[in-house]
Protein 1
Amino acid sequence: MDREVLATRRSVGICDVTTLGKIDIQGTDAGAFLDKVYANTFSTLPVGKCRYGLMLREDGIVFDDGTTARMGEHEFVMTTTTANAVTVFRHLEFCRQCLWPDMDVQMISTTEAWAQFSVAGPNARKLLQKVVDQDISDAAFPYMGAGNITVCGGLRARLFRISFSGELAFEIAVPTRYGDALLRELLAQGAEFDAIVYGTEALGVMRIEKGHVAGGELNGQSTALHMGLGKMVSQKKDSIGMVLSQREGLTDPDGYRLVGVRPVDPQGKLVAGSHFLAIGAEPLAANDGGWLSSKVYSPHVGSDIALGYLKGGDAKIGTRMRAVNLVGGTETLVDIVSPHFVDPDGGRLRG
């Protein structure tokens, strides 16, 4: 896994992300419909661009996240998390049929219709340009760009310039029956760059290094504000969960906030599920400051790192605490840091 992470950050890696949910949404009201189901705005998204979106439950808790691309004036392609692919589609159908039946919007799940690969790393563009028929330079295909393209001399495909790793990255999709052939062609063309295939475990390491939320953070208890994404919840429109996300108990400045965690001793071990305690505090519920939601070993940092929810976390970055796991009998002195361990200013992924 360390080899895959380092090789991707050094040159280029390819990951199969076909399992992500994919939903084609079309109709003259498609943009307005997305404004209602997403906390942020999609009706103003230009054609040929994609945007990260947050979907809330009615109680204001984050339900799912993913990117949605505008492929045409009335045509969008939504991606969901793998675990919620069916649940999100069922939710959208309920909204379409029962909440807003008069809206002109149609949708179909295309999860199994497209094979999709993430190509990430400093040489990602150089590799993809060998198989993509169109120009994908930064000027022609900027960050968060999306479009219908062709590959290998005419095969229809979709390309999205999005990154889950913090590196320059694209996601390329072809009809499922061509997925194996495309992967083999990418590896063949990428030989000069020492391209490798990396798995979801390595992907998980890189997403934590970058500070992206995933399963451990999308725990059914967290709001956009808890995740550091509160500004994404638009106050200029109504959407599912928007009003209840502003409840006093969920907007407390001393409430949980996403932070990065690193052991003071690089050899120190972190355990997901450990609880934050102030130095010298007894391990009692009254002193519980939060918990570690996801933990990995980072070959980039050279130690264990973690993401976690800490009470008043924004104000505690730069301080030290204890990460205590009473079940496992472990305790580690940790630094509370920014959740962005890699490329905090976004320079790499916009390169």
Protein 2
Amino acid sequence: MGLITRAIVMREAGKSPEIEAIELEQPRPDEAIVELQAVGICHADLAVIHGKIPVPFPVVLGHEGAGIVREVGAETTHVKPGDKVILTVNTCGECFYCNSRLPTYCEDTFARTWSGRRPDQTTTLKDGSGKPIQGNFFGQSSFSRLALVNKSTLIKVPQETDLKLFAPLGCGIQTGSGVIFNTLNLQPGDSIAISGCGAVGLSGVMAAKERGASIIIAVDLNSERLAIAKKLGATHAVNSRDGNTVKLINEICPLPAGVKYTFDTSAVPKVIESMIAVTGRKGKIVVVGATPFDQKISIQPLEFLNMGKHFIGSVVGDSYPPEAIPHLIELHSKGSFPLDQIVKYYKFEDFQQAFDDMLSGPAIKPVLVFDDGDGLN
């Protein structure tokens, strides 16, 4: 018999999930059992809950976990029981992209992220009646006190690491900062406009300040979020509620030079088009959000030709997690990446309040925290 624990189980899209007792299989050679201390909530989790991203049900979501290794399989040799770990994306470790330090583009991404099963189509979880539950979400399904995870998700961190604070580094925070550090490789004196002041966008603001950008323009509908962006390093704040975003940004960075880089986290087509419009000659536009499949943006190819613009997609900020996560922890310790300013903690059983607060605004990056002994054998 496997391990019994408690997890947030999503039975169908659009229906509120509930905490249930579930059973985890024993770890295979390339897997481990992690006792979660905390787990961040990402908009990708909410997108699944609200039916915007299709996955098989029932399912345990969660992909920003942090905890302590409890058991390891024979081939999981880079960590041992008792180690603190932050969980990140699940990759094969063998394809061209994994071997090129671009694991977020792994050729086996779908099977390892969205399928709800292992790549060989076996399930990892069962409910109280013994029926299969889809797990392996991003290789971890960490909305659970205990998680059965693939070894590729395990990033070992120092024992003094605050797992509650750094749990969100596995996805969203790594994405926002990674766009600045990797996708754009922003340099001192560069200018950038960032649309969307959620956790991803504000991580981009913090990273841009750390890199020494001369102009950091934060764009959002929410004046409170814009105030936070200014506190974290934005030099300008543009409220897009009145629909004059392009005009306001052009006043700050007039064309044709315009803004050197624009970074959209909103996934809203009209906002993306605004970012394209304000990007200057030889500038780059980066998108990271999951725009629905039935929505498109309108572009003028001649504008890209004459201005030499680049339109780029970025998955998890083109990060290499074994280096990116320790780097972000180090930056925080130096005071140049104040992640604590955007994190809000909730008890595990208060997950629905955390979901609601993320959608309505009170929480930028909600983190669920487990009580000692909660859901353990």
